[in-house]
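Below is a concrete protein record.
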Amino acid sequence: MLTFAKGHGTLNDFVCFSDPDGNRELSDEQLRFLCDRRAGIGGDGTLRAVRARHVPGYEQHGDAWFMDYRNADASIAEMCGNGLRVFLRYLLEEGLIERQPVDIVTRAGIRHGEFLHGEQVRIGMGRPVVAPDPIAVTVGGRSYPGRAVDVGNPHAAVLLSPGELDALDLSREPGYPAAVFPHRANVEFIEPAGDHHVRMRVWERGVGETFSCGTGTVAAGRRRRRRGR
């Protein structure tokens, strides 16, 4: 038996469960089942709350909470922005942390979170890095110029002209250079929507097109800001 909770951050949804002592590391098949929207619970990924000392390579963080995030296909992801907000809310609801600032261990490093008024959660996303060289991203036989953006996890960010976004076919994974992204990438397509706004669609590795992506919004903002200079 597995006790779980279902949560979402701007409709980016996750199956959450706690495993403080590292005894409930599920198989890839079980994780895929949990995320299956017809046969299982349904979600873009799973969030396992485990003490860092039980995670190989992170033992030095002791009893700090580690966010073990897996995509819907059970592949490992370094970081998830919306997932981290849901993770903090889950820890609070389960009585595993107090309502005060907390550091969470992720595969992308330590991320800081805090609770604001009401049910809002704020997290630090780290410093994104935009690669200097352009890359080609292909969708539906068409190539678009993009840039690799590191937000703790890999992104390919593409700026579009107004009117192009809605017509994109994201029913399958976009093409991008495997040499730049050996572990695959999340892909953001960004359309200007005013001086301080953009519209975005995202294809998440191991999931497909999702309603939103926390690290993807950072990649989009960083890409737009760099382009705007």
